[in-house]
């Protein structure tokens, strides 16, 4: 084995250049995983698949061989590559785009260049492969149930007993596995919102699960399970706390309407991001750049601080209102921006270091800038309806409300639509389409 660690050769940042990886198949698990990494122009690349996954814990690492040199990678990705290397498919191994390997992560200029291309990378992929996790006890049974599940006849309303019987039997057999499945770290990862929305096709993989399952198979299975939990909750034991998974399913299933509507406003994006996790708080914004409306876009830049990202997101939200003709000076508008700011303070992990005075300064500066640029009134917004006392009091009350016992699902989805997937989907989609119309 070569002793020198693999080093990426530089990409051409003046072009849409990417790297793609090919895993060499081998049925000898004792041998190191061998990979080829090559540069391609994104417009002229071969057919490829993009990976959606969690990086996992930084330690332990496992070595793979890329272009003849070793490279340590995290264990979760190693497990995926090992599964790919040992696949029984006799065809040629596909080209893959995997951020951990195809981006030089310690180079800010390259990260910026590649993250700005991620929307096109995922939307151009022939398929997005979702690596949920390595296998665990009962995971093969879950994937088998998803693969063989047959949705009930849409023209026949099953009885309550019929609706719950399948899931009662499933829970009796593998409840611990189901609980682990719906709480896998993958479902809370921020970047997957963009990756799943932009993908042409999605395939879910869980361990060595015979080629995985399609998104359509998973969505039908998950929707039926959710409905059974809602209707037969007293006999089914799986917790109701699946709101993050529910939102992802709604957005993916309604992707055509969302994308046809031009994408999300930053207010919509905030709802998508809430409850999700990422290592770098700035990715709460950067990781959704591919699904926001064009007039909300700004170029991701890892030289920016989290505070600069916050101010940029607010500026884009105000600019979107100007584009849509919402330029009144009402207190309601100020209050909405304050709500917006408080939400993004939490997402960007800035709440603890931002007091009322800082928040007011950010908000006032952004609004004054908008007035100077759009309507030429330099100080028109600092008036009695924009009183610091009123606004500071309201902000304090809003922050206190975050600590209330009201569940996230009830706050975001709304009690009136819990249990009705069509209503929830219509509500979620209308937020994006109305903001960009």
How is this structure best described in words?
This protein is α/β, with parallel strands linked by helices. It is 47% helix and 11% strand. The chain has 18 helices and 9 strands. A 9-stranded mixed sheet has the order 5-4-2-1-6-3-7-8-9. The chain is globular and about 65 Å long.
Characterize the largest beta sheet: strand count, sense, and whether it forms a barrel.
Answer: 9 strands, mixed
Briefly note the structural class of the backbone: alpha/beta
Distance between the termini: 58 Å
Low-confidence stretches: 376-392, 402-437
Radius of gyration: 24 Å
What portion of residues belong to β-strands? 5-15%
Query: Globular, elongated, flat, extended or rod-shaped: what is the shape?
Result: globular
**Approximately how much helix is present in the residues?**
40-55%
- Going across the biggest sheet, name each strand in turn: 5-4-2-1-6-3-7-8-9
DSSP, total strands: 9
Number of helices: 18
Oligomer: single chain
pLDDT averaged over residues = 80
SSE order in H/E notation? Answer: EEEEEHEHHHEHHHEEHHHHHHHHHHH
């Amino acid at each position: 084995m070569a002793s020198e660690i693999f080093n990426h050769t530089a990409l051409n940042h003046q072009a849409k250049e990417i790297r793609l990886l090919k895993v060499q198949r081998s049925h000898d698990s004792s041998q190191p995983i061998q990979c080829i990494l090559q540069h391609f122009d994104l417009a002229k690349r071969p057919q490829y698949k993009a990976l959606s996954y969690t990086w996992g814990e930084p330690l332990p690492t496992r070595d793979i061989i890329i272009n003849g040199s070793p490279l340590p990678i995290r264990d979760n990705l190693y497990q995926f590559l090992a599964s790919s290397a040992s696949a029984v498919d006799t065809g040629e191994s596909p080209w893959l785009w995997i951020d951990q390997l195809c981006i030089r992560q310690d180079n800010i200029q390259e990260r910026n260049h590649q993250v700005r291309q991620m929307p096109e990378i995922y939307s151009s992929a022939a398929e997005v492969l979702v690596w949920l996790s390595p296998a665990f006890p009962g995971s093969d049974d879950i994937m088998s149930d998803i693969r063989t599940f047959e949705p009930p006849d849409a023209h026949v309303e099953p009885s309550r007993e019929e609706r719950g019987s399948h899931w009662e039997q499933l829970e009796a057999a593998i409840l611990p596995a189901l609980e682990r499945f719906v709480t896998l770290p993958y479902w809370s990862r921020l970047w997957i919102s963009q990756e799943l929305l932009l993908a042409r096709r999605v395939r879910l993989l869980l361990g060595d699960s015979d080629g995985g399952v399609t998104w359509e198979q998973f969505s039908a299975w998950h929707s039926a399970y959710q409905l059974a939990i809602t209707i037969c909750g007293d006999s089914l034991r799986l917790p109701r706390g699946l709101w993050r998974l529910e939102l992802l399913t709604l957005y993916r299933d309604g992707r055509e309407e969302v994308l046809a509507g031009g994408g999300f406003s930053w207010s919509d994006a905030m709802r998508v991001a809430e409850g999700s996790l990422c290592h770098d708080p700035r990715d709460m914004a950067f990781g959704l750049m591919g699904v926001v409306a064009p007039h909300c876009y700004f170029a991701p830049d890892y030289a920016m601080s989290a505070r600069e990202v916050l101010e940029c997101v607010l500026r884009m939200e105000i600019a979107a209102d100007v584009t849509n003709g919402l330029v009144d000076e009402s207190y309601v508008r100020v209050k909405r921006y304050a709500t917006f700011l408080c939400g993004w303070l939490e997402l960007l992990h800035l709440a603890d270091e931002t007091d009322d005075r800082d928040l007011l300064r950010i908000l006032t500066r952004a609004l004054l800038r908008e007035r100077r640029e759009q309507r030429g009134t330099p100080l028109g917004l600092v008036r009695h309806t924009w009183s610091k006392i009123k606004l500071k009091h309201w902000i304090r009350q809003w922050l206190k409300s975050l600590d209330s016992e009201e569940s996230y699902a009830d706050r975001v989805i709304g009690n009136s639509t819990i249990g009705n997937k069509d209503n929830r989907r219509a509500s979620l989609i209308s937020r994006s389409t109305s903001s960009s119309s």
